Amino acid sequence: MKLRVEEQVFPLAEVFTISRGSRTDARVVVATLSDDVHVGRGECVPYAHYGESVASVIAQIESLQDDLANGLDREALQARLPAGAARNAVDCAFWDLEAKRSGTPVWQLAGLPAPVAEITAFTLSLDSPAMMRDKARQHAARPLLKLKLGGEGDIERLRAVREGAPDSRIIVDANEGWDREAYQRLAPALLELGIDMVEQPLPAADDASLAEIERPLPVCADEACHDRSSLAALTGRYDMINIKLDKTGGLTEALALKREALARGFEVMVGCMVGSSLSMAPALLVAQGAAVVDLDGPLLLARDREPGMRFDAAGIHPASPRLWG
Q1: Interatomic CA distance for residues 229 and 226, integer angstroms
Q2: pTM to 2 decimal places
Q3: What are its E.C. numbers (predicted)?
Q4: Residues designated catalytic
Q5: 49-53 — which CB contacts under 8 Å span 24+ positions?
């Protein structure tokens, strides 16, 4: 088994801003596994907030060379690397390679129903109320908008977006930018504006108070939920979890996390980091039937890879086998 790993950079169509900062490109890491006949690929997005960098993730993946020579497979990988971006890229490359070798799509290998298109959110990054109103107007025909919030003026931003997109469903993501008092103050206004849900309003390390207050606006765990080991601490604090393959460490754990979360009574959202269609392809398998789907990464890029995922009025469509799976 041969392993190749490389960084790839995709310029964004516009500056993307959240409560923790801004970016102008998506820096991804692609792992490629080859048996000299078939090739499997997986993409991940290292995330500094979780202590990852492109260099550290590449080093983690490269550390697998000897293990692969000694027969490392996808199952053994789950214990060899921790949940995170590096394992995601290799896990998805294993799935893709298995599909190519067998001539069987990943959804069948995983025992899943045939995937269909899913409506995805489109993200409006953090900006002034006037700019966010203008962006909302540009995208008012989209059925689901996601707003990045997390600072002074959030109510004004929400009112501006609702004015710009009166008919869209709206969810908001505070990216840990609020505190308990901010949630309690803002929740009634968000409900009045028809907001469906808020992601990670409080810092993941300081979210215990969510169990002590009423949550009239459903709360989704993002930074607080990585893999199945996260779930016990989320009970009573959150109503929904956001599954991202870069947090779970790949499709294998993401599918297991979805099953356990649903069994525990959580609703499920499936999201993404800002990456290319190669990141979205496996995530769409997890997103089937999810309460909320947020796989708009390729829509935020100035250019995607070819062939990319297809987006239209029906949502994001399953990947071509030429891309993945």
Answers
A1: 8
A2: 0.95
A3: 5.1.1.-
A4: 148, 244
A5: 49/20, 49/223, 50/84, 50/85, 50/247, 52/84, 52/85, 52/86
